[in-house]
Write a structure and sequence with these properties.
By secondary structure, the chain is mainly alpha-helical. Helices cover 54% and strands 6% of the residues. It is built from 5 helices and 3 strands; from the N terminus they run H-E-H-H-E-E-H-H. It has helices spanning 20-33, 46-53, 57-69, 86-106, 111-122; strands spanning 42-43, 73-75, 81-83. A 3-stranded antiparallel sheet has the order 1-3-2. It is elongated and about 50 Å long.
């Protein structure tokens, strides 16, 4: 199903210090997390979204590439880019968490210490 109304009236802030591709990426994540873009939603083609947002196609392509690397969307060539189901998106994160937990245990860290380190890393911009 195509994204109904995405991106709506939202536009990236060209005067922000946050790169445009990052603003696009964060907006998609926000919409996915709030179910405004449910699993299976097809995002606009790179050129179409770039035109709507008044940015270079490379900006949207980079945002889509980073969203795909994070498991938030999947690109299917000419069939487009779609939002992944939450369990699909979290699969890679679960594997990374398991690897982190194993490494923390191997180094003798307590659960609380491991969580503290993760929280500190999570808050780093």
């Amino acid at each position: 199903m195509p994204a109904s109304g995405f991106p709506g009236t939202w536009k990236p802030n060209t005067s922000s210090s946050v790169p445009l591709f990052e603003q696009v990426r964060l907006q998609v994540i926000h919409l996915v997390d709030n179910d405004a873009l449910p699993a299976g939603t097809r995002l606009p083609a790179v050129r179409a979204l770039a035109e709507r947002l008044d940015v270079a196609p490379h900006t949207v392509a980079r945002a889509y590439k980073e969203l795909e690397a994070a498991g938030i969307v999947a690109t299917h060539g000419r069939k487009g880019t779609t939002v992944c189901a939450r369990d699909e998106r979290l699969g890679g994160l679960a594997a990374a968490a398991a690897a982190y937990a194993a490494e923390a245990k191997a180094q003798g860290a307590t659960f609380a210490e491991a969580v503290k380190l993760l929280a500190a890393a999570y808050d780093v911009p």
